[in-house]
């Protein structure tokens, strides 16, 4: 049994006992999170597709840790102008463990 959920503007295919990395969520390690924006639920080969969400379906997860992604460097240089700019960015991420997928 698996589901497709939407969080942080992205879609993720999840199943029980998986760990996924999503955009930053509120909470500390050990807190429970419920995703109610379920787009699809598949059980025993039969898929239920939502319009836009599956009614009564939810996914429960546990926050494992709050982390940060790799550093991305943006470097711009204008030749012969003695002008350059260097900026770095690290995205805030949350590692979650999927506990259960509940269908309607």
From TrEMBL:
Pfam families according to UniProt: Ribosomal_L21p
One GO process term, biological-process aspect: translation
Gene Ontology cellular component annotations, sorted alphabetically: cytoplasm; ribonucleoprotein complex; ribosome
Superkingdom of source: Bacteria
Keyword DNA repair in record: no
Entry keywords, A to Z: Ribonucleoprotein, Ribosomal protein, RNA-binding, rRNA-binding
MF (Gene Ontology): rRNA binding; structural constituent of ribosome
Subunit structure: Part of the 50S ribosomal subunit. Contacts protein L20.
HAMAP family (UniProt xref): Ribosomal_bL21
Known role: This protein binds to 23S rRNA in the presence of protein L20.
Family: Belongs to the bacterial ribosomal protein bL21 family.
Protein name in the entry: Large ribosomal subunit protein bL21
Source organism of this protein record: Rhodoblastus acidophilus (Rhodopseudomonas acidophila)
Gene expressing this chain: rplU
